[in-house]
Amino acid sequence: MSKSPAPNRILLVTGLSGAGKSTALRTLEDIGWEVVDNLPLSLLEHLLSTPLAKATGRRRRPLAIGIDSRTRDFDAQRIVQQIKGLATEQGYPVETLFFDCAGGELLRRYSETRRRHPLALDRPAMDGIAAERALMEPLRRWSDYIIDTTDTDSHALQQQVRTRFSTGKEAPTLHVMSFGFARGLPRNADNVFDMRFLQNPHWVDELRPMTGLDRPVSDYIARDPAYEEAVTRIEELLLVLLPRYEAEGKSYVSLAFGCTGGRHRSVHVAERVAARLRKAGFSPTLEHRDLGSLPRDVIEGAQRAEAVN
Q1: Whole-angstrom Cα distance, residue 39 to residue 171?
Q2: Residue 245 and residue 269: Cα distance in Å, rounded?
Q3: Where are the alpha helices (DSSP H) in the chain?
Q4: Percent helix, strand and coil across the chain, each rounded to 5?
Q5: What are phi and psi for residue 195, nearest 5 degrees?
Q6: CA within 13 Å, CB half, 145
Q7: What is the mean pLDDT of residues 62-81?
Q8: What DSSP element (H or E) covers 256?
Q9: Three-class DSSP category at 98
């Protein structure tokens, strides 16, 4: 069994219960870190020597390990000694991030969520908060980073973690698709653009069997007087929105372009927009959901009848 490549960064994430550790771990995972929560540090060396799954491509991702007062055999002073040993004796790039928060704010959070403090299951939460603060003090003193979340909401904390620990690979996964309204809206689409205002190639006999991937269909659609201005404006809008989605930490963005049957107009526009986004530096995947469906007058006819009336 081959040895796993060592992570290029190891971050121990710890702190007071309710201060933001779980939010930080979820955020680190979203921006490309490998995350393990509540792992006894006695098992860390075993984790580091375990080979990566083949699907990872053996990438040396940074590793975040969550530890707190609930971790088995928790002893803050002993953990500090283990951290020193990993860093100085074995050369692992270990850092420690500690989340702190004022007792009054922690008490408010526990009251709002109706959770019990892990160190005060049968006592007032403030007793558990005080006991945990004393228990964690050696780790707090040793930590490389301390984030106080007393006046920080969840969204601001996520932004702070992203800024400080970004791997530079957190761009959202971008998916562009075409579809037919007659066959239902796609699930989980973030933005839906209706292309049914464009002239419909289905009603041109020689174009009907073709699709939006064929040049004659594309040329026909592009001759619509509204086409160029409308599609250009959509592209410009997306070039404004996508960086904002990334800044807000959105992991997936789905753009859906629809026409009546999902074979002509939506396919052509999805292809054009995907190409424009690639030129701008994005890496969209492209799907034509209804491209394989047969052209049917009964589906396209409803829209045509509405237009005539």
Answers
A1: 29
A2: 22
A3: 21-30, 44-49, 76-84, 103-113, 125-142, 154-165, 215-222, 227-247, 265-279, 297-308
A4: 45, 15, 40
A5: -100, 10
A6: 17
A7: 82
A8: strand 252-259
A9: strand
- CB burial readout 130-151, b (16+ within 10 A) else e: ebbbebbebbbebbeeebebee
Q: 56 or 191: whose pLDDT is higher?
A: 191
200: helix, strand or coil: coil
Q: In what order do the strands lie in the sheet with 173-180?
A: 191-194, 252-259, 173-180, 285-288
- What are the structure tokens assigned to 196, written together? 């049914």
Instruction: Give the distance from CA 52 to its chain's centroid.
Output: 22
Yes or no: say if 180 and 263 are a contact pair by the CB < 8 Å rule. yes
Distance CA 255, CA 238 (A): 9
Of the candidates 129, 107, 102, the one whose C-alpha atom is nearest the C-alpha of residue 118 is 129
What residues contact residue 72 under an 8 Å CB cut-off, 6+ apart? 38, 40
Question: H helices within 116-261, ranges in order?
Answer: 125-142, 154-165, 215-222, 227-247
Using CA atoms, how far apart are residues 193 and 181, in angstroms rounded to an integer? 11
* Phi, psi of 144, rounded to the nearest 5 degrees: -80, -35
User: Tokens for 190?
Assistant: 């973030």
Separation of alpha carbons 193 and 159, rounded Å: 30
The distance in angstroms from the start CA to the end CA of the chain is: 72
| Tokens coding 278 | 């690639």
Distance between CA atoms of residues 67 and 79, nearest Å:
10
* Residue 235, amino acid: E
Max CA distance (Å), the chain:
82
- What does the pLDDT look like over 212-223, one tens digit per residue? 999 999 999 999
CA 211 to chain centre: 33
Which of 176, 161, 166 has the alpha carbon at shortest distance from 271? 176
Whether residue 211 contacts residue 132, with contact meaning beta carbons closer than 8 Å, is answered with: no
Question: Could you tell me the CA-to-CA distances from 139 to 12, 39, 98, 150 in Å, in that order?
Answer: 10, 16, 8, 19
pLDDT tens for 261-304 read 999 999 999 999 999 999 998 889 899 999 988 776 656 664 45
